[in-house]
Every structure is written in C-alpha cells, then in structure tokens.
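Sample 3 of the quickstart, ligand NDP:
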Amino acid sequence: MSNRQTVDREIKKFMKDVRKRNPHEPEFHQAVEEVVESVMPYVLDRDDLRQARILERMTEPDRVVIFRVSWEDDDGNVRVHRAWRVQFNNAIGPYKGGLRFHPQVDLSVLKFLGFEQVLKNSLTGLPMGGAKGGANFNPKGKSPHEIMRFCHSLMVELHRHIGEDTDVPAGDIGVGHREISYLFGMYKRMENRFAGILTGKGLSFGGSLVRKEATGYGSVYFMKNMLEKQGESLQGKTCSVSGSGNVAIYTIEKLLHEGATVVTASDSSGFVYDKNGIDEEKLAWIKNLKEVRYGRISEYAEHFDGAEFHEGKTPWSVPADLAFPSATQNELEEEDAKMLLKNGLRGVSEGANMPCTRAAVSLFHDAKILFGPAKAANAGGVAVSGLEQSQNALRISWSRAQVDRRLQGIMKDIHDSCVEYGNDGNGWVDYVKGANLAGFVKVANAMLAYGIV
Ligand code: NDP
Ligand code: 2IT
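Result:
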C-alpha cells in the first residue's frame, strides 16, 4: 500500500502535467483531478497499470474532430459556427455520448464531458466507449427552420465520423427530440442507410420507450437506492430541482411517483419556488412550456398562484431534504452547499454533469450526507441509449415496462458497484470514489489487454 504522502505527490505531479498539456481547459482539469484523486492509490499499487501509463493514456482523447458549420438564417445572413466531436476512448465499445448546442461550448467543456462519459458508460455495464460533441450555437431565439438548417449542415460533416459500430451520438443541453430528428433525417439521406447511428430518436423511427425519461428517472432511482441502504424512502421528502429541461422534467415526474414534494425548477434566467409543490397538472404545463413552446420558466409564476420567480438566482437557498441539480456544470457552489446544509439537506443526486463544484462536494462529504455523483446518478440516460442500440441491432422494440425494469436494474447495479468500491468500512460510502474506481478498473483492464495501442 502506498502511503498518503506518496499518493499526494503523485497526484500533484500528474495534475501539473495535465494542466501543461491542456492549457486553458479548467473544466477538463476539474473532471480529471477528481478522478485521479480517487484512482491514484489503486494505480500506484498496480505495477502493470503504471508501466503501461494507463492513466496518462486515459486522459488523452483518442481523437478530436473540429469542423465549421455554415448555415443561412431567416434573414438571409450567412452564419458560421464551430463544432467538435471528442472521441475519447473506445476500449470497451463504440464511442457513445451526447451533442450539446450552447454558446459556452468549447473544447474544455467537451473534453470534460467526454472524459466523464468514458467512466459513466463503463459503470452501466454495457459495451459503450465515451465521447461528446456539440457546437457553440445558441438555439434560443432561433426559428424551427433555422434549427433545421443548422442541424442539417452539422450532419453534412459529422456523418463521416459516426456509425452504429463507430460512434453513436445522442442529445444533451440544447439537443432534444427535434434536433435529433433533423440530424437523423440528414444522415439517412446522405448515407442512404437506416441505422441506429443516433439515440434518442422518435418512437416511429427507431427510438426506445423510456429514453426521454431515462436520465431523470435514473437519477431518482439512484437516490432511492442510496436512501434504501439507510432504511429510508423518498416518501414525504421535500426536494429542490434545478433546470427545467429534459433531465429536470423527468426527475420531477419520478419524484412525484415516489411520493416526494418538489418545490423548485429553474432555467438560465432564474428559478421558481412553489411552496405548494409542483403537482402532475403543473408538471404537464411545464412539459408543454419547455417541450412544445420553448418558453421561459418565469411564466410559471405568472400562471400558478403562490409561486414566486427569483430572477438571476439558483434554487439552493430554498430549504429541502434532497437536492437534484439538473441544469449544468458548476451550478451549485460552496456557498450554496453551506446554505443547503444549514437548512437540513440530507442528500444530493447529480442529474447534470459535474453540477457541484469541488468545494461543494467536499462540504457534502464532510457532512456525511448522501451524495450521488453525476457519472453514477445520471447514467440512466446513456444506459437506455445503450438499450436503444440493442433494440436497433435486433430490429425489435421492447415495451415500456421492459425498458424501465432494465433501467432500474442497471441503476441498482451501479449503486452496488459504488458501494463495493467506495465503502469506507465504517458504514459510510464515498460514492464519488466508488463510481470513479468501478468505472476506471474495467476500462483500464481492457486497455491493458490490447497492449500499447
Ligand atoms: P436541456 O437543454 O433539456 O435543459 C437544460 C436546462 O438547464 C435548461 O433549463 C437550461 O435553461 C438550463 N441551463 C443550461 N445551461 C445553463 C446555464 N449555463 N446556467 C443556468 N441554467 C442552464 O438539457 P438536459 O436536461 O438534457 O441536460 C441537463 C444536464 O444533464 C446537462 O448537464 C447534461 O449534460 C446532463 N445530462 C443529460 C442527459 C440527457 O439524456 N439529456 C444524460 C445525462 C446527463 P435555459 O433553457 O434557460 O438555457
Ligand atoms: O451526458 C450524458 O450521459 C448524455 N448526454 C447522454 C448520452 C447518450 O449517449 O445517451
């Protein structure tokens, strides 16, 4: 066993090199550092992994494709954007991971997401490598025709780099059912092939039941598993949710099924606090607002009595038993964590990718509350994407109940892997360490088996 000093020295040395090799990529450094802190003691004890420089190889993407996307807006102006596909690691299966359309997308964000995806996909137990892509394109305020032209133009390049046995993109922030449909339509036309090259497709053209709900449902199943281990349930718990997109909506829906009360939702303009709770009827209204009308969450407070809109704020000042950050990275900071803990917080399930800063996570750990890290807690989405790939390959469709049962089984298995690798021996589980180590070991062993490639 390496002693703590040696471990700390090696982590420092490793991170110095990562920062030097990848300057100006703070999100990527953040994601790598968290993993390296978890896995370094294990790596130092395995000569084979050290000699093969597995950690160095795993933090370097297999390849990054960068390309221009030109398109014409409704006023006839030519617009130019940049898009990326980061194919991070395919040791255990074809590259798999979402596409994000957001003005703040850059290489750092996509590398952090791609790196996380490698370990997340490994945790699902399904044969999927990790990738991420997207563009610095802001879908907000664009007409449906503009979105269509952008998606079509993007696929004209992307089609060369993907395929059902190569790389299978899906949705993420700013990429939902509408965008996936446009992307799929152009791929099919260009290649004259109908194949499972994207997931999150419409149900009439190869999509899977429960894919839309999977990330949010999975995040709640993960919390349920953590609570059950403590002999508790979701029944009667007060929950705060951030975001009001795909993940947030189906997190709220499953929390309602489980008898919890949800008092917040948000978007980038602020959050709504509904002290009476968001019920099924109000949730149906939010779905229409966000999935059909593409409107703003502030309208909720205008529509429902007793609800307040807090402009420019995040929901973490509201007292809650459980928090489900489900919007974006670093949206829950140290001060938010302090406030939540002061107000009696008992658990967090990260629906978004890396929504809590490292300082916030550290406070949650010190307080020994339940903390489900993103790569475990939000793995339900990509897991059902994997099930969509299986259904496409078999040319069959499973029922809603079949897919949901598999999703619940996968979330339980992920939970149990985290417990196995993250148990401190005194009854407390470090789910961050557990998820990082369980995800890492499988990919590392596969890479080792291939030799130096
Ligand atoms: P959506 O685009 O459907 O929703 C995103 C939500 O987050 C919106 O409410 C959006 O508000 C808000 N948001 C986005 N960026 C910011 C920001 N910079 N500041 C504040 N709020 C912001 O995306 P998803 O729900 O699909 O994704 C949410 C998170 O979940 C992301 O971290 C994503 O990577 C992660 N995830 C998604 C999966 C999926 O299957 N979709 C799977 C696993 C993880 P606004 O509309 O105002 O921008
Ligand atoms: O972050 C994620 O896991 C996703 N955006 C889903 C990826 C996928 O391929 O379904």
